[in-house]
Design a protein that fits this description.
Integrin_alpha_N, mainly beta, KICSTOR_ITFG2
């Protein structure tokens, strides 16, 4: 994957930041600090062109 956009954030609420990358082909990957051999822990495809990524508390739950 050639990254076009990236962000750091705690997407799984484990108090550790994950590294999220996306590209212009609509592929998104999430990497944890413990990823083996640089393999993502989650991937999504066919999301459309990804030009930026935002991570935040969208439910305003404080997490």
């Amino acid at each position: 994957m050639t990254p076009h956009a990236y962000a750091f954030g705690d997407v799984d609420n484990d108090e550790d930041n994950e590294f999220i990358v996306g590209n212009l082909k609509g592929e998104l990957a999430i990497f944890k600090g413990i990823s083996v051999c640089g393999q993502p822990v989650m991937t999504c495809k066919n999301l459309g062109t990804i030009t930026c990524i935002a991570v935040g508390d969208i439910r305003n739950s404080g997490k």
